[in-house]
Amino acid sequence: MRILFILKNENFLAPIGLCAISAIALREGHEVFLCEVNAHDPFSFITKFKPDIIAYSSSTGEAKHYLGLNRLIKKRFPGIFTVMGGPHPTFYPDVIYEDSLDAICIGEGEGAFVELLRAISAKKSPDNIPNIITRSNKHEFTVRNLVEDLDSLPFPDFALIYNNTPLGKYPLKNIITSRGCPYDCTYCFNPMWRKIYQGKGRAVRQNSVNYIVDEISYVRKNWPLSFVKFYDDIFVLGVDDWLEEFSKKYKKHINLPFFILTRADILNEAMVRLLKEAGCHTISMSIEAGNPGIRNKMLKRNMTDQQIINAFGLCDKYGIHTFTNCIIGLPGTTIDNDVESIDLSIKCKATWAEFLIFHPFPGTQLGDLTVKQGYYKPDYELMHTSYQHSSPLNCFSEKEKNALMNIAVLGAVAVAFSRFRNLIVRRLIFLKYNPSFTFFYYVTKMYILRRKIYVTKTSFGNSLVIFAKSLKQEWFRHQNKRG
Fold first, then answer.
1. Of 12, 23, 88, 396, which has the most beta carbons under 10 Å away?
2. Superfamily of domain 170-482
């Protein structure tokens, strides 16, 4: 069968989930194609390649683009079967009733997609396939067991993305080495994920070190690579045999600088030492909220200020740069609370910090609570991939929403250049939102990320192209906001 994956690429990382499903389809002997809608006209693409199936993988912020396009596709090509997987349909399955999709896939899609292709090829109903929801089986669907042995899966189909988009030329490539997270952060999908898969296998699973080394070697052989971004929810949960083996083999066989994500409350000196020996260049640890009460009661992060400060201090001791995220505009909080997040980021000496305006995603405990409290009426057509859009919550005044927009861009500048902290938090964030603030944010971001966070050996000219693309996306966002 001929499968067309449709992608609207809005960042500089390959969509690993999409690549994983494509790899499974290839292993089953099917043909795969990619239409990146920023570069190609989907309707001309469909006319030329005549796919049997069109597949999307989407977060909630992206879904409106794909759903709108799918309505038009179904009008012009009603015989093509369309299916969506990813976080949005997994945690908001009612999308199957609200739009023109033929099916959605819940959770891990490898086994489900294989069965779906077989059913469509044989002209059979997909209603009884685990993980697949149609308009007929919403209340009877089941999920299959989780994939226990991740090494049994083929490498993601990186060629689908790297041979068909500019990402192939960008020397930073992202790799995922594990699946699942054991923590209960209220803004995250993972607690609901574990609930969906209760009794269906271990939630947290990891590829072997040899698999990862071979995967990265394959990528480096075929495309430019000078920096690896490990994009697991949590790279490792502690010092164990896996990490010790990884430190030795990665250094011996790959020997490229890399980036990981972890938590401040589990980072210790032994872990930092092993990561540094392997070549770790940057560690990302989210602070989320500078106020301990908000961080631990509302968000269930369960870590102290001192644990956070100590973890960032360890990175500084070993010469590892740090990246952090903070959520601003949380329900019922104040601008002063968000300034606390700026101040804790400064105290931690974070190399780079992002301040992300809270959006209540479906399927998350905090998202559902926000709706229950009456702070937000679900309208996922208005949700965005960028966390710098105006807060959608009605508990904030327009003046407060304006300040949040400014913190989202100027907070990062305050952390990077702390001498401007007082000017920013006492004066600038209360001025009317100004696109020039966003310009300063992107200039600062390009400088910090290029010089400190990612060592990509990207030419200055290519960096300017990335910078210009980011500004263009921001300009369109600002125009849409005004409209």
1. 88
2. Aldolase class I (3.20.20.70)
